[in-house]
Write a structure and sequence with these properties.
The protein has about 240 residues and is of the alpha+beta class. It is built from nine helices and six strands. About 30% of the residues are buried.
Amino acid sequence: MEEKWAVRIDPLAPRPAVAFAYQMPEPRGPEYFAMGIIEDILLGGEDSLLQEELVRRSGLTSGVSGGINVIGNLYDYDGPMLMTMGVLHDAEVSTEQIMRAADRVIDGFAARLASPEEMQKARVRLRSGLYGLLDSASRFGMVGLLAAFALFDDDPGRINTIEAELLAVTPELIQKTMGEYMVPRNRTVLALLPPAIAEAKGLEAGRIPVPDYRAEPQAPSEVEAEVEAEVEAEVEEGAGP
């Protein structure tokens, strides 16, 4: 496999955005539960690693969103799935800048063992989310999980093993899983651009060659700077008082 980059041009987009996603391991295995912990450490809450780098330290965006199976939850699917992350950003920030900052976080995390504090916070949040599903007043969450495990595993009783399987994840397993799955060759990057910015960068919709985004950023051309200023002005005008 190899890393894939693509561009989507949207005339209705007031600001650029970028999403990047990693192919998940097979459901229900140890690496699958490790990815649940990884997702929480990278994306879960205001103290997540990506939030800290992209928002607080670099100031590239106002927030980072995403997750595993964003239209459901970690437990109620079978088959291929993605861990997706995405940000909205200003016109003067490039996709390459976003990905360079994201890789600093992900590569740095992959190079070390998760700390006891990180493991504890992730486990607490995942357990809280699981109990929120199971203890909802309507019981729809519990019924949904029972149905998913009955359909996909022929074992609705597996609902009782989720917590133990999450607690069995170790920092060593997280590091091993990061090295196998949280790598560029297992990733697709999609840039969403307003037409003016795409034109200034000479980009068309569709798949593009992977840029050398790890290199130091270059100063924007006069045309790019002018277009970015115009787009920013349009955004501010559209926001209004």
